[in-house]
């Protein structure tokens, strides 16, 4: 099961290494890990997306307890099921011909990405969005020749508004029957990517 863990640490050269060592010893697969300055001086926020390889249901709570014991860790929270704002940055360099360039320019209106570099035969696309939209764009662009691709990994903050859409994406078989006063029977991914 995929988990999102937020860790607040004091700035320390070995802090990230200790956390990564703990995750690998406990057999958690790291999907992404981001570390950057935060709202407090001399502290950094680490957002970790891990996949639990063990069958234990309380493995995530054990993990947060063990991270909390590490030197320089100020706060740890498993925010997987909390209302979140999640973002990720994706850069893709594509090899394109004239017709493909026109198709991609049309896609820019749908996915709201930026074209940040263009030559006769290449485009570089930048998009900052929630992880679901990043995956959807990547799947659409797979039919083109991808020369290079780089993803930053997810960052996340808990929402104060208590609106949560990310936890629904964890269940692709989940169906929604009522949306905006109309009856629909669609896969939840269709709702996220068609703009309903």
TrEMBL record:
SUPFAM superfamilies: ACT-like. Pfam families: ACT_5 (PF13710), ALS_ss_C (PF10369). Keywords: Amino-acid biosynthesis, Branched-chain amino acid biosynthesis, Plastid, Transferase. Residues 4-81 form the ACT domain. GO terms for molecular function: acetolactate synthase activity; acetolactate synthase regulator activity. Belongs to the acetolactate synthase small subunit family. Catalyzes the conversion of 2 pyruvate molecules into acetolactate in the first common step of the biosynthetic pathway of the branched-amino acids such as leucine, isoleucine, and valine. Dimer of large and small chains. This is Acetolactate synthase small subunit. It comes from Akkesiphycus lubricus (Brown alga).
């Amino acid at each position: 099961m995929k988990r999102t863990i937020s860790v607040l640490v004091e700035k320390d050269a070995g802090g990230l290494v200790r956390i990564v060592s703990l995750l690998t010893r406990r057999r958690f697969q790291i999907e992404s890990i981001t570390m950057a300055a935060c709202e407090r001086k001399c502290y950094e926020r680490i957002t970790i997306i891990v996949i639990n390889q063990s069958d234990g249901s309380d493995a995530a709570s054990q993990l947060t307890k063990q991270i909390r014991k590490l030197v320089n860790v100020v706060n740890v929270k498993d925010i997987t099921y909390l209302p979140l704002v999640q973002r990720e940055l994706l850069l893709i360099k594509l090899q394109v011909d004239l017709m493909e360039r026109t198709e991609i320019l049309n896609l820019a209106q749908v996915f709201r990405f930026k074209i940040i570099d263009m030559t006769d035969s290449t485009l570089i696309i930048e998009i900052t969005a929630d992880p679901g939209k990043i995956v959807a764009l990547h799947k659409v662009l797979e039919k083109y020749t991808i020369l290079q691709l780089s993803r930053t990994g997810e960052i996340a903050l808990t929402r104060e508004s208590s609106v949560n859409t990310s936890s629904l994406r964890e269940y692709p078989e989940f169906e929604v029957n009522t949306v905006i006063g109309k009856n629909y029977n669609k896969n939840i991914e269709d709702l996220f990517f068609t703009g309903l």
